Amino acid sequence: MISLVFPGQGSQYIGMAKDFFDNFELVKNLFDKAEKLSNLPLKKLCFKGPIDELTQTINLQVCLTITNIACYEVLKSELEKRNIEISFVSGHSLGEYSALYAAKVLSLEDTLTVVKERGRLMDEEGKKSASAMYAIIGFPLRDLEDLVKSAEDTVVVANYNSPKQFVISGKVPAVDKVAEKVKNLGGKIVKLKVSAGFHSPLMKEAEVKFNKILDSLYWNDPVIPFVSNITGKEETSGTIIK
Question: CA 66 to CA 61: how far, in whole Å?
């Protein structure tokens, strides 16, 4: 059984997809098409950076999505030659849109459109106040929730990645102080390579606007079994996934 999980923001690096671009014509075609659809210099951003510019969510969401899609298309082509099928697809945060593309829930055009708009809206909200995200590793959830509740400003547990890894998101310096307390109490902290405090109430206005964009798209039922990172279960209806 082969299952694919597509990564989200924070997994970016300069040079991502460059080897695929240099060696596969289909990847060159994908990047060319994506640049026309998004009106962004994706090849420059992905292959040369600089990293600060790549990491800006207004750029990164399209860059990372086309990288995911390019890698997926190469892998799918190689698996098909060997008569191997992909059993499940899923995605972490932004990566879920790449999984929706792989499952044929969304077309390439709609996938790139939706992540570009998602990036634009999140960028707008992120500029309203300084914010950040931290991965919290090896620290009890109950203790983390207590620290978050006592924070001096907006801080939330944004992601429950595993029983031993969580992500907090919120305003600076409140989120920094929570992370520092975790560290002092023996937990491990990793500041995420993102440009704002996503998955938090700071994105509320973006969420309202984004829902209207989602409603404008056509959502097919998945062709490859799709596991939602909201429910943790396989979803078979495009309407429910939306």
Answer: 9
